[in-house]
Amino acid sequence: MAWQVPLADVRLTQADIDAVLAAYRSGWLSMGPRTLQFEAAFAAYLGVRHAVAVANGTAALHLMYAACGLGPGDEVVVPSMTFVATAAPLRHLGAVPVFADIVSELEPWLAPDAVDAAIGPATKAIVHMPYGGHPGEVEALRALADRRGLLLLQDAAHAIGARVGERHVASIGECAAFSFFSNKNLAIGEGGMVATNDDGLAEEVRRLRSHGMEMLSWDRLRGRAAGYDIERLGFNYRLDDPRSALGLSRLARLDEENAKRADLVASYRAALEGVVGCALPEREGARSSNHLITILVEGGERDAVRARIGERGVQTSVHYPPVHRFSAFHDPRTSLPVTERYGERTLTLPLFGHMTAAQQRLVVESVVAALAPS
Ligand SMILES: Cc1ncc(COP(=O)(O)O)c(C=O)c1O
Predict the structure, then answer these.
(1) Which CATH architecture describes the domain 254-371?
(2) Cα(152)–Cα(43) distance, rounded to whole angstroms?
């Protein structure tokens, strides 16, 4: 069925398409000059020293963890209320994700006291996921990481444009990983970025992105020395120039699109006030990227409500089934009551910059009708 209102939608401008075509016409299809430009523009946007473009957000997380030296025996405190990709790359490296609970059902991001309780002698890092683009408790997590001598890393897949004061949320940890998957605020299809202020980490991410090599084909084309050594095993996680060109073009109007998302979220909140609880409250001094708008459906009704909304042509989703409940991560000792309650009640409504007032009205009417079926 074609949805009348999809959950997310991408609309490219003529400038975006021209930028991609120019990349193809240049004849340079793999990682090259446009990727370097995209990295520089992205780092400047975040206010960090380095941004390293990679194949997707999962690759960005994998490289961030690998470059930080996380490996067998290391424990890393992560949220379970996230996409599986926050935790899975840790397991690929032999490290152990230790799940901690969220603050509340309205604030579904890591709770600093739960993180503190989950830290043990083998803990090396905390991974914050700014859920829905909300900075969450990032400052308290920063202080906790400093106090306990741990790295603060971020799965910033939702968070491009999210700020605390004037600082981009991603600049508050040692390193952050972004996704440019089709449903994200900066969508290019598949793509990701690792951002950091640490020169050594950036260098290691760059090396591991390309088989552990110093030398890239773009360097060779420009006549730089051809020899290379492999000191540590790496991956092929490079991004290519046509997608970098799209990222660069779209980055130029990201703030404008995020502002439209903020307006849409404000009108959702106003329209749904007194009807159903909206999570992710605004916080003074913090700016969300408004990646998601989520509501809380009580009484075990979420899936039925979701089906009724779907019958009216409105696509919804669930962010997320808790990771610790998946078979591959199941450990009977893990108990995260707030995450579990949130996972049963949360429902994500459609949100994208060019959503029309009529589309939003249809969503709201469908939610109201689905909550009180006649
Ligand atoms: C929170 C979170 N982490 C990681 C990812 C993985 O990103 P990608 O799909 O680009 O690999 C996503 C998006 O899919 C995500 O939403």
Answers:
(1) Alpha-Beta Complex (3.90)
(2) 19
